[in-house]
């Protein structure tokens, strides 16, 4: 299992590596002038909403996707969630809100609900194969748990960048990690990673690949440092697949973070389907 990182099928980049629009309306069954309460969908680790488009197309209400643009603040999960809350309020100033998070986006969605409830808004939270506990388990599998103190060790960063290179450019994970440990600085590792990926994906510029790789790693690190400290009151629905890569059972530790019972629905498929 590539030392706990899977085969790369858990992450899938589309043709747009770094989105230029944070909040975008997705096609759904709702008419353009619908006044129904919308659903706000939060991206997976890739930062783009592409993987949730098929789901959006089946829903009867308006659907908006949130994407991690280059200017999104990634100092912490809290700052990213606050940035998304501002985006959400441009469409829907007041609750009740329906927030949906997929995979890595589950951690962000949870934090968004924490912030909305703190502002006295009510929410419904839907999580697609993810939770703060799920994402923490996953980042630990990526060796990011070796980070401590004021930053991330070179080896941790190299493994995270190697995972990006594997899922984005289909490079060999172990060989790439060994190559990325050699550079002496974060900037040099980013440059080397982008150079390696660009051999496979020459249609993308060096700068775009560096920016995308940096965002990818920053999201992993932000989640590593995030420790939920409060419970939410929102009803929570967790949808998880029968083919489950994560070594977590039950409600993915969500009952520890919610005041209400978590509804768990299991559907046939895997993390991507």
From TrEMBL:
User: Which leading EC class covers this enzyme?
Assistant: hydrolase
**Keywords assigned by UniProt?**
Transferase
| GO MF, one annotated term | fatty acyl-[ACP] hydrolase activity
Listed EC numbers? 3.1.2.14
Q: Which residues form the Thioesterase domain?
A: 38-272
The identity of this protein, by name, is: oleoyl-[acyl-carrier-protein] hydrolase
To which species is this protein native? Culex tarsalis
What does UniProt list as this organism's lineage? Eukaryota, Metazoa, Ecdysozoa, Arthropoda, Hexapoda
């Amino acid at each position: 299992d590539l030392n706990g990182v899977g085969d790369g099928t858990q992450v899938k980049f589309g043709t747009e590596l770094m989105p230029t629009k944070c909040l975008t309306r997705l096609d759904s069954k709702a008419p353009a002038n619908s006044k129904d309460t919308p659903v706000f969908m939060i991206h997976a680790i890739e930062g783009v909403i592409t993987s949730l488009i098929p789901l959006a197309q089946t829903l009867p209400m308006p659907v908006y996707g949130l994407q991690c643009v280059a200017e999104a603040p990634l100092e912490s999960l809290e700052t990213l969630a606050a940035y998304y809350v501002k985006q959400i309020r441009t469409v829907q100033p007041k609750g009740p809100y329906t927030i949906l998070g997929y995979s890595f986006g589950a951690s962000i969605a949870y934090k968004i609900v924490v912030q909305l409830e703190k502002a006295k808004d009510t929410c419904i939270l839907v999580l697609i194969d993810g939770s703060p506990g799920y994402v923490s388990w996953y980042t630990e599998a990526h060796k990011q748990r070796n980070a401590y103190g004021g930053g991330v060790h070179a080896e941790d960063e190299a493994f995270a960048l190697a995972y990006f290179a594997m899922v984005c450019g289909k490079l060999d994970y172990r060989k790439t990690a060994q190559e990325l440990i050699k550079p002496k600085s974060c900037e040099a590792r980013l440059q080397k990673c982008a150079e390696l990926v660009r051999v496979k994906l020459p249609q993308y510029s060096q700068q775009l690949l560096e920016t995308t790789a940096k965002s990818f790693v920053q999201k992993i690190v932000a989640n590593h440092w995030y420790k939920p400290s409060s419970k939410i009151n929102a009803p929570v629905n967790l949808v998880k697949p029968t083919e489950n890569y994560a070594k977590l059972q039950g409600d993915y530790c969500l009952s520890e973070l919610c005041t209400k019972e978590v509804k768990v629905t299991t559907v046939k498929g895997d993390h991507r389907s």
